[in-house]
């Protein structure tokens, strides 16, 4: 067949031509550039303008950045080294002060503690954030809230142990008292027992244990916290504490009980309606006035209290969003199984609502973490506050961009990392249903 | 089936308060109310006790006393002999000014950047991504401080405009950009007929009337189009309504522009936009714009591609597709987060204190607090003011939002 | 005591730890540290160094008090306060004393219920201008843009001065001194006004000090000194007499170099003996021991030594003694007798 064909129709090509390479303008970088950068006259102009813009920025920034002033010990020395007043950066200030910007005044030999606390924090939240982590790590997550204050502030280990015991007692009463005195009774009993334990028994018993077996870390006062350590401490503690408060507020806002709902809505809207800085002013000047005469927290704890209230209101809104996103069938399913309100919340609603809220919680945390810089306005030495203090040192009067640039970089790295994570999570949650 | 008994004719027992679901919610509410009242009572009691220990008595009388300090940017008459209350009002107005300006610029920038992030031009899209990430992930306080530092360090001082060969010169001989702010020509009226504030009200009134007139013309044009299928050409009418009455009014009032002049230490005359205002305005707007850009981007991406393709199939041109099909739908997604961004911007404007912009935090909760030592009163009042502003913004925006939302049937 | 921090951290327990206010001296002794309020940073007066230790002229007063009371000049917790938070911090008991460039005024003493225990620096508000403006007197400042620190008496003085002299000005309010400096140097304001000591120290930090002049007018009296709460007179006495001991030590020629020798045995000068506890029982009267002043003076040297080390003419700050010289040298520093 084939050779008859070949003979009869001589003008038909019998074999395929080899593939030719595509024209140079439609493959590789050139094609890409044509398509993405120079697809039309307007586009070309925009591209050129953008390139000029980038060049302008870099031509200002790079010569400034690359200056060999790492070893300088004062701004004067820097100026001598570079021979100009403003033309190049003075990195000596970062070399001399970077530890202070990270740790504040935390004692040098104790700095492994905040680092360890941070590492443990990452491990402790890993099972919540990544599903691949073994579930056993959850035990660490459970004890972490008691471990972290001990690591950071030091003191005897017995006090956090005793505080944790209060929760255990409450749990046991709820668990076993339900049959004896009913669910409501056991819950009230648990709260009462825990409060009594904390107020009257925990401290003496901890003292007794401490005198028998003194397991203690050196105490570090709140005032020695500073720099990034202070920002992270305030951010993490406030978010951690605000989670339970936020859940309660969100449930209160969703509930049918008018008075409860009004109180919750009032609180949430009040906090969300005023700037954080006014709450910090309250922390710095008024909070002691609201408390019983003689009570005195130091300023950092007062700030943590107010920031917790602040983030609780935002947390409540995030969790309310999670609750609203749950299909109604989940509530009805819970009802049809005969679960009461708290059982349904604990076993069905909350696990799902919290899971969908995680991206929102992460972005609340990012926002809060950035907002911790506001404490510099009330005189705490967070990175920005420290920058001011460093600039008051007579060696470094006049240093500006280096410090702010360094601090901006620190915040950028942390916040950017977290926001990438939250985006990853959002994508993962989206595909799951 | 008929064994179902009637609910027992129960006599009320005390335990039913706890175990009967009909009454339990009542009980819980009463307990919650009692607990809440007790808490508030406890707070008030503590406060009263502590204040009397300190020998202070809560009183707002200080609001009537002379403030004693000067404020640079004041929209109403104020001097150092005015009362603390008036200082607070100056602060409130300054807060409103920065919030208003900030929201406008942030929206414009945010929409532009959000659209550009979806640009087909790779390099533009990347630059916008870098912009968004850079501004979102660094604290706004740092941006405000940096903006101020950049303005102060890079712009020329008024001194640079002096001498025979000045190193800086005014733009068009009327605008001077200095590190003390921007000095611009200011309009004023030469007329003797009415006072200048009346003249301003007249201008505003005529402007509003013209806008309403234009809207009426458009509406009637649409009505004609609906009835006949042909849209009458009205653009010249619209332009006329917008400009002719205003031009006549300005001519009658004798509008003139006063340019700033370098006199003594500084530029005099004209309009002075202070450094603190500009730094705060730019920093807040750029920061908030990064968030708005993300909202806009996700809003546009939420519109199904079929929408614009269908519009294209109907023969609409790309810009009409954007304005008639995509944006109206995207707006429904964009507006709710936009409201919260406006609120955030307004609240963040309280960081004005970092650059010395005299808003309500700087006057009432700043210098007045310092000079009088009345922490409780000033802070309560300040928080109340912020709360009111926030509530007004969210109410207005929510009304707008509900009008924009699809009315489902 | 170690647990107290922890108790605070766990709010619940913190409430239990609340105690009725006791005498400040007992509290300080029980706590083992002195809480001293300072500012967030004024060159020469208070600023943290690279090791995180606070240094400065005001800081030395805190250290002297700690040395006198607790026998340890390092046992001080420095609490940075802003112009807004300083008085609340003191009133609420968060700090035991304030030593942070605070002007002694009637209303602060009487209305805010504080007790100024003395003056460690006599200051006054002045103006600094660039030389090229050609201004020689503050009365020529009509229309100037003035950089000014908020939260101080400065802004009230300024408003009064310009109003009385019928001049106009444009205030540029600034939160911290470092910002003010930056703005002034960049020409964002024509004039920088603050206490003249701060002006001198700011000027000394400039690259070209001769390009700026401090105008002759001093428009206010700013006696700066440490203060304590009203009502606890025993504690007030301790702080007052510690400050006086430093001043008296300079007058009597007691320095950190010769104090060991002078306090070892009674000298010929009975006042030195009483001061250093080798004669009489002045320390006991205050509830301290006889060696209190020896420790206070050894902590940072006498008044003059501290002055020279932190703000004197050989430091970058470069302040002359002026009003702050001893009364015997024509100044105002005058300690009541130790008797």
Rg of chain A, Cα atoms, Å: 30 Å
Looking at the chains present, what oligomeric state does this protein adopt? Answer: heterotrimer
Average of pLDDT of chain C: 85
Number of domains of chain C: 2
Structural class of chain C: alpha/beta
The tally of beta strands of chain A, per DSSP, is: 2
Q: Give the full name of the CATH homologous superfamily of the largest domain in chain C.
A: Periplasmic binding protein-like II
What proportion of the residues of chain A form beta strands (DSSP E)?
A: under 5%
Query: Tell me, what's the shape of chain C?
Result: globular
CATH T-level topology of the largest domain in chain C: D-Maltodextrin-Binding Protein, domain 2
- The residue ranges of chain C in which pLDDT falls below 50 over 5 or more consecutive positions are 1-21
Strand elements of chain C, count: 14
CATH topology of the largest domain in chain A: MetI-like fold
Q: Any idea of the CATH class of the largest domain in chain C?
A: Alpha Beta
Instruction: Write down the CATH class of the largest domain in chain A.
Output: Mainly Alpha
How would you describe this structure to a colleague?
The complex is a heterotrimer of chains A (433), B (409) and C (339). Chain A is mainly alpha-helical. Chain A contains 16 helices and two strands. Chain A has a two-stranded antiparallel ribbon. The model of chain A has no long low-confidence stretch (mean pLDDT 84). Chain B has a domain at 84-153 and 276-404: Orthogonal Bundle (MetI-like fold). Chain B has 409 residues and is mainly alpha-helical. Chain B has a three-stranded antiparallel sheet. Chain B is 64% helix and 6% strand. The mean pLDDT of chain B is 86. With 339 residues, chain C is α/β, with parallel strands linked by helices. Chain C has two domains: 21-121 and 224-329, 3-Layer(aba) Sandwich (D-Maltodextrin-Binding Protein, domain 2), CATH 3.40.190; 125-220, Periplasmic binding protein-like II (D-Maltodextrin-Binding Protein, domain 2, 3-Layer(aba) Sandwich). Chain C is 38% helix and 17% strand. Chain C is built from 15 helices and 14 strands. In chain C, helix 7 links the parallel strand 9 and strand 10 (169-174). The radius of gyration of chain C is 21 Å and the shape is globular.
